[in-house]
Design goal:
Elements: H1 14-35, H2 62-75, H3 83-98, H4 109-119, H5 143-146, H6 153-162, H7 168-182, H8 184-187, H9 191-204, H10 213-219, H11 226-235, H12 238-252, H13 273-287, H14 301-309, H15 315-328, H16 335-338, H17 347-357
Helix pairs in contact: 1-14, 1-15, 1-17, 2-3, 2-17, 3-4, 6-7, 6-10, 7-9, 7-11, 7-13, 7-15, 9-12, 12-13, 13-14, 13-15, 14-15
């Protein structure tokens, strides 16, 4: 199926390219930082906060691997309007990741089950296709779709989610996170506020997402009314979790970082999409500040990754998502190095991140 868009943007300003590079570096660094302690409870952390990796390499997990797979899928597509072609490309890259010898780093059960079903011939929307799960695999890898052209980013974000996680509570948090990532420079320090505003627009029927033609076409195999679907994704705990995170943010703002404690407290552990996104937005709100706010952020970018990794939950995914969001908020070349963070990734992934950072997922001009 092909959707004819009304707008076409196929070149990106230089600062968008830089933001994409900063996002990829940030998510990989956060992933490696949290992967050290992914299954360690907050009470048994080796330090508070957890120190950055000290070995030869910063070892990333499935979060970065799947982000890169998604990037390469989008990079090979010349026409995002052709949804079937985009779907095939994403599935092909995900299936390559599924059997990659490096896929030994705690890959998500839902991702692996869904991909086994797709490899066997099911389509993602079949009852025996993608798992109807709200797991965080739908959100930890989405940075490339957040940087896609204006008319496609919403639909592509939903598509990459439903290929493995077709629950509304996976899709709606993915859309909220992609929205935050895409508009990060103007939302610094207010990510949770904007997410709640977007949720309110969905509830009161004023959200433009409900009428987005590409998003509607992507989800057509599994939904009837788009507005109802978006509301369902919020009603299933997402809105409550975002509200809890916003309340926690106000509690933490006056405190010194040493007193922040477990990021997950009162919100959730990030194993599913809604709490993973809420936690990342919380971290990013404390690690960035708006241009209109004269006060410095409570945390630097690297300190934000350290705090995100020191959690009682899915530490690598929380820190990965937070790192991508913090990086995308900064259009300055070499933001992470200037902030004092120079991770040394394994050569394979260092090369892939560098190559991906130079190639935004922009597709080709529409006719």
């Amino acid at each position: 199926m092909t959707v004819t868009p009304s707008i076409s943007h196929h070149t990106a300003p230089a600062d968008t390219q830089i933001r994409y590079a900063n996002a990829l570096t940030g998510l990989a660094a956060g992933d490696a930082w949290g992967y050290q302690v992914e299954f360690t409870s907050y009470a048994h952390m080796p330090a508070y906060p957890v120190a950055p990796p000290t070995g030869r390499w910063w070892v990333i997990s499935d979060d970065t691997q799947m982000t890169l797979a998604l990037h390469w899928a989008l990079a090979e597509v010349t026409d995002f309007a052709d949804i079937e072609t985009v779907t095939d490309a994403i599935i092909r890259q995900f299936l390559l990741w599924q059997v990659d010898p490096d896929n030994t780093r705690a890959p998500g059960r839902t991702c692996m089950t869904s991909l086994r079903n797709l490899r066997a011939g099911a389509r993602w929307y079949d009852t025996d296709g993608a798992v109807e799960s709200a797991g965080c695999g739908a959100v930890m890898r989405l940075v490339p779709t957040a940087f896609a052209p204006q008319q496609y980013w919403l639909g592509l974000t939903a598509l990459q989610a439903v290929i493995t996680h077709k629950h509304p509570r996976a899709v709606v948090p993915a859309l909220l996170l992609a929205d935050a990532t895409r508009h990060a420079p103007e939302r610094r320090g207010r990510f949770l506020e904007h997410a709640l505003t977007t949720a309110a627009q969905i509830y009161n029927g004023t959200s433009t997402w409900a009428t987005d033609p590409y998003l509607r076409e992507v989800l057509a195999p599994i939904i009837g009314d788009m507005s109802s679907y978006l509301v369902e994704g919020l009603n299933d705990g997402t809105a409550d979790i975002l509200t809890a995170a916003a309340g926690r943010l106000e509690q933490l703002r006056p405190l010194p970082p040493a007193e922040f404690g477990d990021p997950c407290a009162g919100i959730g552990e990030g194993w599913e999409s809604a709490s993973a996104v809420a936690l990342a937005l919380l971290v990013a709100d404390l690690a960035t500040t708006s241009d209109n706010d004269p006060a410095a952020a409570a945390l630097t970018g690297p300190e934000g990754l350290a705090w995100a990794a020191t959690s009682n939950g899915d530490s690598d995914s929380i820190a990965c998502i937070a790192g991508g969001l913090i990086g995308s908020a900064h259009p300055e070349h070499g933001y992470w190095a200037a902030a004092g963070l120079t991770p040394t990734f394994e050569p394979r992934y260092a090369d892939e991140i560098l190559a991906a950072a130079s190639q935004l997922p922009v597709g080709a001009p529409a006719d």
